[in-house]
Write a structure and sequence with these properties.
Blueprint: H1 8-15, H2 21-26, E1 57-60, E2 63-66, H3 77-81, E3 84-92, E4 95-97, H4 99-112, H5 121-135, E5 140-150, E6 162-171, H6 178-183, E7 185-193, H7 210-222, E8 226-230, E9 243-248, E10 251-254, H8 263-275, E11 278-281, H9 286-290, E12 294-299, E13 303-310, E14 313-314, H10 322-333, E15 341-343
Parallel strand pairs: 7-8, 7-13, 10-11
Antiparallel strand pairs: 1-2, 1-6, 3-4, 3-5, 4-15, 5-6, 9-10, 9-12, 12-13, 13-14
Length: 347
């Protein structure tokens, strides 16, 4: 066997299929000195964020911070996998509304997701109240969050993650603006199917919102202002951040399958109990929704909000219904009731 010519390195290159030095010389190609490597950019010690944020205060890792400084690592499972639970409560005229129910649901969600934080409900109440007090807001949207967190080794085992608690308070916001509250919302029904409860437990408040966001874009494309999406049986489910109620012949009804049991939804049940109104949970199909005398949606972000149009169908006489107004008025009256609300300590 004839030995390969050239240096050992060139021979190795030929064996591996890469051209060797002798090959380049034989081909007539000339070699030039390699261009000097450009220096890598400097590693910044702080992130410079040019975005604008609402005025508010956040709590994380034992610190109270302006909203612009409240950051979550890109390695946190809450960001990477939507592995988080949360709850929102609002403050109106300096008082939390039904804070105890929100805290109970938050802790139930963490338990179901096998998350733990170093705070009990009383301590979280103090943290939330402090966020509001430091912000100075008399009306606020307040959120508490637990993410799966991350591990120092980027482990894919969720048991090795250190769960993280975050809270913040920003100005109060509503699903419906003032004009919409006076005339009623225009809602479109999207064919997008809500994540079924066998996949994601709807009693755990979560950030799996891609179905809801798709529904919103469907509604915007239709010319509507917000959306309702359907369950796996094509019955009405819920909207992005809200439940829905119908009123027919003085009886109220709300979807039961695969929806988050909202605190404002529960409040409507409680108010109906005080007023002696009939209210139930069950399947609602498209025709039943469009054939209702009144329709309204419920959310911590806005309370009880009327709906006057669904797709191209006008609801009732196209005006805010009498029962919707009665429940709305009583709902806001309860915000000053110590049995339903908790004062923020601004001192």
């Amino acid at each position: 066997m004839k030995p390969l010519g050239g240096s050992a390195t060139a021979n190795r290159n030929r064996v591996c299929g890469a051209p060797g030095l002798q090959d380049l010389e034989d081909s007539g190609m000339t070699l030039t000195a390699a261009e000097p490597a450009t220096a890598h950019p400097a590693i910044e010690q702080r992130h410079r964020d040019q975005r604008h944020y609402p005025h508010g205060i956040a709590f994380m890792d034992g610190q109270y911070l302006p909203m612009s400084e409240a950051k979550v690592s890109v390695l946190d499972w809450g960001f990477l996998h939507s592995d988080a639970t949360y709850d929102t409560v609002h403050v109106w005229d300096g008082r939390f509304f039904r804070l105890d129910l929100h805290l109970d649901r938050f802790f139930r969600g963490m338990e179901k997701l096998r998350m733990k934080i170093p705070y009990n409900p009383t301590e979280i109440e103090k943290i939330l109240s402090t966020c509001v007090a430091l912000s100075g807001h008399k009306s606020a949207y307040v959120e508490m969050i637990c993410t799966r967190g991350g591990s120092p080794t980027f482990s894919r085992d969720p048991r090795q993650s250190e769960n993280r608690f975050i809270a913040f308070a920003v100005p109060f916001g509503s699903v419906a603006n003032k004009e919409q509250l006076e005339r009623g919302l225009h809602v479109a029904i999207s064919n997008t199917v809500r994540i079924p409860p066998k996949s994601i437990d709807p009693s755990i408040k979560n950030y799996h919102w891609l179905d809801l966001v798709k529904g919103l874009f469907d509604a915007y494309d239709y010319g509507a202002e917000t959306a309702l999406i359907v369950d796996i049986n094509d019955n009405i489910a819920e909207g992005p951040g809200f439940n829905v109620f119908t009123v027919k012949d003085g009886r109220l009804k709300t979807p039961a399958y695969g929806v988050l049991a909202g605190i404002t939804r529960q409040t409507v049940f409680d108010l109906c109990g005080e007023l002696g109104l009939s209210v139930s949970a069950g399947d609602i199909d498209r025709d039943e929704l469009k054939g209702a005398d009144e329709v309204f949606i419920t959310s911590t972000a806005g309370g009880i909000m009327p709906v006057s149009k669904i797709d191209e169908t006008v609801v009732g006489d196209g005006k805010v219904g009498a029962l919707t107004r009665q429940l709305t008025d009583l709902y806001w009256e309860k915000h000053a009731d110590p049995a339903w609300s908790t004062a923020v300590n601004y001192a």
